[in-house]
Amino acid sequence: MLTGSDVGTRRRWLGLGTALAVVPFLALLAAIRYEYWHYPSPAANILIEFVLLWVAILGLAGVGLVWLVRLYRSWRRDRRLPWTAVIAPLFVMVAAVVFVVVPTPGSRDFERAHGEMESLALSMLQNDDRRVGPTEVGGVRFSTVSIVDDCVLFVDSRRVSVVYDSGWVYTARCTVDPGDFARLNVLSDNWAEFQQGN
Fold it and tell me: Strand pairing partners for 144?
């Protein structure tokens, strides 16, 4: 038979154990989002990130399911919930806010380099240099910088893969067709972030 202290311990572990279980999966998502690892090849980048992303998502879903079942059982048994039951959801919410507020390395790279990128883009357009690269601009390495229909595409060498290229496009002298890109995110009047299939 459980004593009062045993019940109290069980209630505390209902939330603390689940909170500890979500930490590695949230850390995995953070490592993917903030590009903690550098992979040996673009193919490894896609494969490993895909696998790790699904491990993290399924891990969080599994922990969430266990949390719900244990919460339901605790409520049926005691007709009240321990305060520790909110710790795991709180961890997830804090992580979500951090992911929204803290910029990714790509965003920081663009903020640091876009002035020099614009100077290079204008120079290329003026001199009709169709392609440059690999090159470094403002501390950011680009595998290529090229003019396509008067748009200047800066392909980020850290985000090149066998499936797609990622980077930024300077659009001051062109009209960008979103259909030409897998993903296009307008950053300002003359800049957009893109992802484009090879």
Answer: 155
